[in-house]
Amino acid sequence: MKSDEYYMSIALALAEEAAADGETPVGAVVVRRDGFIAGRGRNRREKGRNALYHAEILAVDEACRTLGGWRLNGCTLYVTLEPCMMCSGAILSSRLDRVVFGAYDKTGETTLSELAGNRVSVTGGVSEAECSELMKKFFDRLRSERKMSKLNFTEAVTDAQIEAAAALADEIWHEFFPSVLSAEQIDYMVEKFQSARAMKEQMASEGYKYFLLFGGGERVGYTAIKHDSDGRLFLSKLYVKKEHRGKGYATEVFEFLKRYCRENGLSAVWLTVNKHNKIAISVYEKRGFRKIGEGVTDIGNGFVMDDYYFQLDVD
User: Which of 21, 30, 232, 256 is deepest in the core (most CB within 10 A)?
Assistant: First the structure.
């Protein structure tokens, strides 16, 4: 086998991949006594939407499958962060001989003292500076992003929140759309699609989610989304009150939607926009959306929606 630092460098590379993917940067490898790397893992909790997807668990899982058994006697686990309680249990269960970790966990949740008492050799602080610096940079970036954010997103779940979203819809639609739609069609569409009753039905039967947008503690707009069965996110509504347009809020919503897609394994954001709504079309095109089609939908009462379809692919 090569040095502990060598195998820790491989775990660090996996941790860097996790950070680039928006995951807490932890990487792990399981190495057999002859130097063969039997398992690799990195944090995937957000992408996998699974509390068990820690780097250590995934590395142990792959090692068991590679070596053809659950007993990992003669193997060492290298991990960039001191293992948590759950991962310590997996280490004990898999009969690993040794654990080598980089950065110390400051939360006090670990049980490595128990591992040492169960005949598992534990070595801490290997490449500690590099492992700790990666964690620090990741969380510094998160804090910076939160500090820069102008918007707060509150999911509308209570009757009062849904009624607030409906009130915003009534106000914004009647202010914004007279240049595009007739007054009669605006009234009809607000009642049919954006009343509190309609929103509740969409949420209950179609899986829609509505979010109130707050800027500086003030309610500035709302957005609505829905998961599609084809792995895309449908942006149903995004409206900001007139006095709050031009403040960069739309950009923040699109960043929120892209993060939401990545965290939920969705490939793209798509939407429909009225062909005559040139302001919105310009906004979407500047944000990287591309036109993927068009269509006319009968919405009843003699009215139709004559729309373009736009899509933003999420890396």
Answer: 30
Question: CA nearest 233: which of 199, 268, 272?
Answer: 268
d(CA 154, CA 14): 34
Identity of residue 110:
T
Q: Catalytic: which of 5, 16, 17, 56?
A: 56
The 8 Å CB, 24+ separation contacts for 275-279 are 275/306, 275/307, 275/308, 276/180, 276/306, 277/180
| Residue pointed to by tokens 């964690």 | 135
3-state secondary structure of 285: helix
- pTM listed for this prediction: 0.55
Distance separating alpha carbons of residues 172 and 181, to the nearest angstrom: 13
Determine contact, residues 27/15, Cβ cutoff 8 Å: yes
CA distance 269 to 286: 15
Residue 140 confidence class, pLDDT cut points 50, 70, 90: confident
Judge whether 77 and 36 are in contact, CB under 8 Å. no
3-state secondary structure of 79: strand
pLDDT of residue 119: 78
Residue 60 CA to chain centroid, in angstroms?
A: 25
Binned at pLDDT 50, 70 and 90, residue 22 comes out as: confident
Helix (H, G, I), strand (E, B) or coil at 295: strand
- Sheet with 151-155: strands ordered across: 151-155, 209-215, 218-227, 233-240, 268-274, 303-313, 290-300
Task: Return the beta strands (E) in 216-253 as ranges.
Answer: 218-227, 233-240
Cβ-in-10-Å burial (0-12, 13-18, 19+) of 224 comes to buried
Query: Which letter, b or e, does each residue of 252-275 get, where b requires 16 or more Cβ atoms within 10 Å of its Cβ?
Result: bbbebbbebbbeeebebbbbbbee
